[in-house]
């Protein structure tokens, strides 16, 4: 197996003009990480020279290594192998781009997040940006795929390849200065050297607009309050303070944007309290039993997933299943509509796929809750836990399951090295390498 220094290469995560990023394992302890290695495009070498590229690569690593913040990705190691420098960072298998289902053609619609989740992502991103800007660093490439999500869903801002110190003049080919199409601020496209912290706030605004509307704002964005019923005119003003083409009319700092966001969140929560105080809980019902969802594990290729699992183009359920959850003791919920018994919670910490299977075996060994027929659920069984994105009074219904376990492994495999999972919060199906860490929630019964 190929090695880079003391790291075993497990796969290629991505590539850019200057470098490639590999999934690697520190073999003695089995720890997975992301290794970014200088492997520049030959055109860049001809334009800038190998030595300049090495200096740029080291400068990026130094910037990241000096940062210490819970919402910023950090460099853990720096070395050289076979004449190529590399930097090693904590690796997180998920990011906001995956969460919303952003596609190669970024202008296509994406999934809309529930407002409380979008607020958490926005808050944490602004906290990370405030730290960066305090250290005099302008990121210049904020976008959903550069907002990593750790095992508990917290944001880690990553990819500092375009970042520079305030006032620093960096000689780069023009195509490396601009940032990502759709997200780069107008002034960054016109004159990259003039872009400051407010360019990051613009890209952050595009990201948040997408989280809450499923669209990119474009040059003349529609008021988000017309696209999402949870937003009011106050949100329109907030987005204007992020997306104004003139940086002088944007928020002056991440802290200012954060303070305005905090006020919007407080107002939304007050409105929700009033809505919920008037909302009459639905009478307890017992819907007619549906045909039990598939219980046997299968292997499904990505090209077959939509038809096999019954998904739309954004890998959400094409039709939502009925469910009726009733508690049976402190640990169990019975779904009378689908004939399933569920753990109310699940594993207390994230597990890789093989650990998730072992967790279920241990439940059976000790007869947890008096049951010895626990198993990892199929994708179809996990889909019975989903409901459409909540708005307004939907937030008044208390979730029957613990909120900790938001992303759950299924027993269904994508291949011999990857398995399917369901994100309960964003309501979609995707797959990850067996070594990713998600939660397990056991099920019993069914077909």
How is this structure best summarized?
The chain is an alpha+beta fold. The protein has eleven helices and 18 strands.
Q: For the largest sheet, list the strands in their spatial order.
A: 1-2-3-4-6-5
Number of strands: 18
Percentage of residues in DSSP E strands: 15-25%
CATH homologous superfamily heading of the largest domain: Transferase(Phosphotransferase) domain 1
CATH topology name of the largest domain = Transferase(Phosphotransferase), domain 1
The total count of helices amounts to: 11
Indicate the overall shape: globular
SSE arrangement, N to C: EEEEHHEEEHHEEEEHHHHHEEEHHEEEE
* Total of domains: 3
What is the residue-mean pLDDT, rounded to a whole number?
91
| Gyration radius from CA atoms, angstroms | 23 Å
What's the helical proportion of residues? 25-40%
Low-confidence stretches: 166-170
What is the highest CATH level, the class of the largest domain? Answer: Mainly Alpha
Biggest beta-sheet profile: 6 strands, antiparallel
Distance between the termini: 42 Å
In terms of structural class, how would the helical and strand content be classed?
Answer: alpha+beta
The second-level CATH architecture of the largest domain is: Orthogonal Bundle
């Amino acid at each position: 197996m190929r090695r880079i220094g003391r790291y075993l290469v497990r796969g290629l995560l991505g590539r850019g003009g200057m470098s490639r990023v590999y999934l690697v394992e520190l073999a003695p302890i089995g720890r997975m990480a992301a290794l970014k290695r200088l492997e520049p495009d030959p055109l860049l070498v001809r334009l800038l020279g190998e030595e300049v590229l090495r200096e740029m690569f080291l400068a990026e690593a130094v910037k990241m290594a000096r940062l210490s913040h819970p919402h910023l990705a950090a460099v853990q190691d720096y070395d050289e192998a076979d004449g190529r420098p590399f930097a090693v960072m904590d690796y997180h298998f998920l990011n906001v781009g995956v969460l919303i289902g952003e596609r190669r053609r970024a202008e296509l619609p994406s999934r809309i997040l529930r407002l409380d989740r979008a607020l958490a992502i926005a808050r944490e991103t602004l906290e990370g940006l405030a730290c960066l800007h305090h250290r005099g660093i302008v990121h210049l490439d904020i976008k959903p795929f550069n907002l990593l999500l750790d095992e508990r869903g917290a944001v880690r801002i990553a990819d500092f390849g375009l970042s520079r110190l305030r006032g620093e003049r960096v000689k780069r080919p023009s195509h490396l200065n601009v940032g990502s199409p759709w997200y780069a601020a107008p002034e960054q496209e016109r004159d990259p050297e003039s872009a400051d912290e407010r360019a990051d706030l613009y890209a952050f605004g595009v990201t948040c607009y997408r989280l809450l509307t499923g669209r990119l704002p474009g040059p003349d964005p529609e008021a988000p309050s017309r696209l999402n019923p949870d937003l009011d005119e106050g949100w329109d003003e907030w987005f204007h303070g992020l997306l104004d083409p003139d940086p002088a009319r944007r928020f002056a700092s991440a802290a200012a944007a954060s303070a305005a966001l905090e006020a919007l969140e407080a107002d939304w929560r007050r409105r929700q309290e009033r809505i919920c105080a008037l909302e009459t809980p639905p009478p307890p019902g017992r819907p007619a039993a549906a045909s039990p969802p598939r219980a046997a594990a299968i292997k499904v290729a990505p090209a077959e997933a939509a038809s096999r699992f019954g998904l739309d183009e954004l890998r959400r359920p094409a039709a939502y299943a009925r469910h009726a959850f009733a508690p049976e003791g402190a640990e169990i919920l019975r779904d009378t509509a689908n004939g399933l018994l569920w753990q109310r919670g699940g594993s207390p910490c994230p597990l890789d796929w093989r650990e998730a299977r072992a967790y279920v075996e241990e439940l059976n060994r000790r007869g947890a809750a008096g049951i010895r027929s626990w198993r990892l659920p199929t994708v179809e069984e996990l889909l019975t836990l989903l409901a459409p994105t909540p708005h307004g009074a939907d937030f008044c219904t208390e979730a029957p399951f613990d909120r900790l376990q938001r992303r759950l492994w299924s027993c269904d495999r994508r291949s011999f090295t990857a398995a399917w999972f369901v994100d309960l919060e964003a309501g979609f199906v995707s797959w990850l390498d067996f070594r990713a860490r998600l939660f397990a929630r056991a099920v019993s019964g069914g077909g």
